[in-house]
Write a structure and sequence with these properties.
Aminopeptidase, 2 domains, 8-stranded mixed sheet, 7-stranded mixed sheet, 11 helices, 15 strands
Length: 339
C-alpha cells in the first residue's frame, strides 16, 4: 500500500535523508534549504512517499514563477532510498498531477542518481527530456574522501598546491572563522565583484543560506585577511556526512597571495574535525574543453586530490506547449555562455 502525504516533521525528513541508502546527501532536498527558499518568498512543498506506513521517499518542491515560464523545481529530488523504479514512477505521477493543479508549464527534476545505462534507459522510457541548461546542481562534482590523515591528504595534492599551502605562513595570513553574519558584507563585496568579473549571475539568498544553516551549526564562513584587508572568503556547508564548498570569492588584485589555497585547506581540516567523510568541492566542468567557463576553477579544485562523481543530468517533463518557449530561451543562453 503506497501513499503520498505532506511532511511537516523536520526530524523525520532529515533522518530519512541521512540514511545509508542515499548515495550522496542531497543538499537541495534538505529541510534548511527549503527554509532558505521560503525566505526568498518561494512556495515550498514537502512530500513524503510511504509504503506500508514506512517513509521510503521524499521530495521537496519549489514552485518557480519566472518570466520565461512557471514550473515545479525538484532540485536533487525526488529521493527514493533505496532507489526503486516503481516507487520513483509512483512519486512522479503524483507530482505531474500536482503540476497541472498548479498550472505550471513543466516539471524539472535533477535527482542525485549516479549516471548509468539503467538510469538513462529508465528516463528515456518515461520520455523525460534532457533539460537545456548547464551543470547547475553539481551533477558533475569533485569530491575528496577524508579518511586519510592530514599528512596523507597533503601528499596526494598536486605539487604546486602543496607548495603554496606550505609557503602561506610567509604571507602572515589570518584566517577568520564565523558562524554568524558578522562578516557577510565583506564576503558579499568580494562575491558580487567576482560575479561581475566572471560574468555569472550572483546567487540570491547567500545571506539567508548562511543565517539558516549557520543557526543549525551547518555552515561556516572562512575569510582570509592579508595586510589588514579581507581578500578572500568561502562558505562551507555541513550536511549529512559531507562538507560542501558552496560559495567562494577572492579579490583579483591579490592573485599572488595563496589565500584561496589556504582557505580550502582550512575547510578540509574543519570537515575532518567535524567527523565528515567527504569534502565536496561542488561543480566542475563536465568536459575537457579548455573553452568551458569553469576550466580554471576545475583545475584548482582537482589539484587538492580526489575523484569525480557524475549524476544524471536535469530532465524536464513538459505539461504545456509554452514549455518550448522556455526551452529555446535556455538553450540559446547556454550556448552563448559557452556551456
Amino acid at each position: 500500500m503506497k501513499r503520498i502525504s505532506k511532511i511537516t516533521d523536520k526530524k523525520l525528513w532529515e533522518d530519512f535523508l541521512s540514511k545509508k541508502e542515499v548515495e550522496m546527501y542531497p543538499l537541495f532536498q534538505s529541510w534548511n534549504w527549503g527554509e532558505v527558499q521560503k525566505k526568498l518568498n518561494m512556495e515550498v512543498i514537502r512530500l513524503g512517499l510511504f509504503e506500508h506506513d514506512e517513509l521510503v521517499g521524499v521530495c521537496q518542491i519549489v514552485v518557480i514563477r519566472a518570466r520565461r515560464g512557471h514550473y515545479l523545481h525538484l532540485r536533487h529530488g525526488p529521493v527514493v532510498a533505496p532507489f526503486s523504479e516503481t516507487l520513483f514512477d509512483f512519486f512522479m505521477e503524483y507530482i505531474k498531477k500536482l503540476g497541472k493543479e498548479k498550472n505550471v508549464s513543466f516539471i524539472r527534476l535533477s535527482p542525485l542518481l549516479a549516471k548509468s545505462p539503467v538510469i538513462t534507459r529508465f528516463f528515456k522510457e518515461k520520455k523525460y527530456m534532457s533539460a537545456p541548461i548547464h551543470n547547475m546542481d553539481a551533477e558533475t562534482c569533485w569530491t575528496l574522501p577524508l579518511e586519510k590523515t592530514e599528512e596523507q591528504l597533503l601528499m596526494d595534492m598536486r605539487k604546486s598546491h602543496r607548495y603554496l599551502i606550505k609557503k602561506a605562513p610567509e604571507f602572515n595570513l589570518k584566517i577568520i572563522k564565523a558562524k554568524s553574519l558578522q562578516y557577510m558584507s565583506s564576503f558579499l563585496r568580494l562575491y558580487v565583484d567576482l560575479s561581475l568579473r566572471k560574468h555569472f549571475v550572483a546567487h540570491r539568498g547567500v545571506k539567508d543560506e548562511m543565517e539558516i544553516f549557520g543557526s543549525n551549526d551547518e555552515a561556516i564562513m572562512m575569510l582570509c585577511k592579508f595586510e589588514e584587508k579581507i581578500i578572500a572568503g568561502v562558505i562551507i556547508l555541513f550536511v549529512g556526512d559531507m562538507a560542501i564548498y558552496h560559495h567562494g570569492a577572492s579579490a583579483s588584485a591579490y592573485r599572488h597571495v595563496p589565500a584561496s589555497y589556504v582557505l580550502q585547506w582550512e575547510a578540509i581540516k574543519e570537515a575532518k574535525k567535524r567527523g565528515k567523510k567527504l569534502y565536496n568541492f561542488w561543480g566542475i566542468a563536465p568536459t575537457d574543453s579548455k573553452k568551458h567557463p569553469w576550466t580554471g576553477l576545475t583545475l584548482f579544485k582537482q589539484g587538492f586530490g580526489g575523484e569525480i562523481r557524475e549524476f544524471v543530468h536535469a530532465h524536464d517533463i513538459p505539461l504545456k506547449k509554452l514549455y518550448w518557449k522556455t526551452y529555446m530561451i535556455e538553450y540559446v543562453s547556454k550556448i552563448m555562455k559557452g556551456y
